[in-house]
Specification:
Elements lengths: L6 E10 H7 L3 H7 L2 H8 L3 H22 L11 E5 L5 E5 L1 H9 L2 E10 L2 E10 L2
Antiparallel strand pairs: 1-5, 2-3, 4-5
Amino acid sequence: MCAEGGIYGIGTDLCQAARMERCLQRDAFLRRVFSEQEQTLLTARSGKARWETAAANFAAKEAFLKACGVGLGGFALAEIAVLRRESGAPYYALQGAAAAWARDRRIIAHLSLSHDGGLACAFAVLERAR
């Protein structure tokens, strides 16, 4: 962890789309893991696209937690929202304690997502602003 500027942490994670297909059948899971904005994003997609998006977002949340160095219980998963720009590029929209943690440390979060063959991959880089 750097003191001034530079990379604070990196994290990566994989998630199976089939796992999300099963998990999304439970409303409690959907509300606990995904922010309202993410739920809207998932509702707008169907079938394979919905499961792949959910898997990518879930992997992004875990990658973020790993990059923070706080472990999987560091923040509520719904506070680590993963959204898409008009271009389709993913980004973190942090809320609550996750947003406060990043703000206090001057963290800028970068995210890359990919999926193929039923797996979604997320790579997070946390940069400390100068």
